[in-house]
Design brief:
The chain has seven helices and 14 strands. By secondary structure, it is an alpha+beta fold.
């Protein structure tokens, strides 16, 4: 019988060792300059979060989950062998791998992810959901321009953060992510098909915002490296026409205290009935929203020695 790993709110393996000293925690910290870059541009990138062994385990588990009838398939919130709406292209997209395979579960407590996330959010935070995005070689689909929070408006306030982690090298040839610097100050724009027409969102933008697209930045990174971005930063990724695949996992988190503010039958609610519901007005917490970082459980000496986005403003 399959086991729902989401019932465990702690690591299940030793793949991501936890720091045992203040010095170890500090080794994972972002610098003040990186925090200021995030504040100015809405993203930072090229942050190493995985070593070779961790990448290999995640890649192996991912290959198992590509098979539609794999063990644990029923625990995914969403599972799309191909979410592309464009003929002859493919985008594998799934939410919920943390409930299905141990490495994808335990990566949530990876200190190389947890510490930067705390610095950027500025307080304790909880897990929201994970995603897998995979583009096969030669015919990988786009992920059209969008803002993450446009899909999450059933939560309030907007105190979220996204971490995109490459499981392959990503570049302009195989469909790396692109960001529009400063677009986190645009405000919220309506959501469109995630894997539809790449530039569909332009019809909703002002002329100034369209000009900002000329400043879009390709996020070229080696496997095992990550980017972090603001919940309304405009981003997307182009087709993969290269001879190599492009795989990534994404971790979405929110500050402790965010609440559910919309009925799950609303058009703005999650696109699946398999997502764990929280009643309107209640705090987003419980089994499927574990607390990943609690400052009250961390040395105050450590907290006094690391910069956060809140305390450098």
């Amino acid at each position: 019988m399959s086991e729902d790993l989401g019932l465990s709110s702690h690591p299940l393996s030793d793949l991501f060792p936890q720091p045992e000293s203040i010095e170890e925690w500090i080794s994972y910290c972002l610098s003040e300059d990186q925090l200021l870059d995030f504040q100015e541009n809405g993203f930072i990138h090229d942050i190493k979060v995985l070593n070779h062994d961790q990448i290999e385990v995640l890649q192996r588990e991912l290959s198992e989950m590509f098979v539609p009838e794999h063990e644990g398939r029923e625990f995914f919130y969403e599972y799309h062998s191909n979410e592309s709406t464009i003929p002859e292209t493919v985008l594998f997209h799934a939410l919920g791998a943390w409930r299905v395979r141990k490495a994808f579960h335990d990566i949530l407590w990876n200190p190389a992810f947890v510490m930067p996330a705390y610095q950027l959010l500025g307080n304790g935070f909880r897990f929201f959901h994970d995603q897998i995005f995979c583009k096969p070689a030669n015919h990988g689909s786009v992920v059209s321009w969008h803002q993450d929070f446009s899909y999450w408006t059933w939560t309030q306030p907007m105190h979220h953060l996204t971490c995109w982690i490459g499981l392959d090298d990503s570049n302009e040839e195989n469909g790396c992510v692109h960001y529009v610097p400063g677009s986190h100050r645009w405000g919220l724009i309506d959501k469109l098909d995630l894997a539809g027409e790449m530039d569909a969102v332009r019809s909703l933008l002002t002329s100034d915002q369209i000009r900002d697209f000329e400043r879009k930045v390709p996020i070229v990174m080696k496997e095992g490296y990550a980017s972090f971005h603001h919940p309304v930063l405009m981003h997307g990724s182009f087709e993969n026409r290269s001879p190599v695949q492009r795989r990534a996992t994404v971790i979405n988190v929110f500050g402790d205290g965010v609440i559910s503010n919309l009925d799950f039958v609303s058009v703005n609610s999650p696109g699946t009935k398999n997502y764990p519901p929280i009643p309107i007005g209640n705090k987003m917490e419980g089994t499927y929203y574990p607390l990943l970082f609690n400052p009250e459980e961390i040395s105050q000496e450590l907290l006094l020695n690391i910069p956060t986005l809140k305390n450098i403003k």
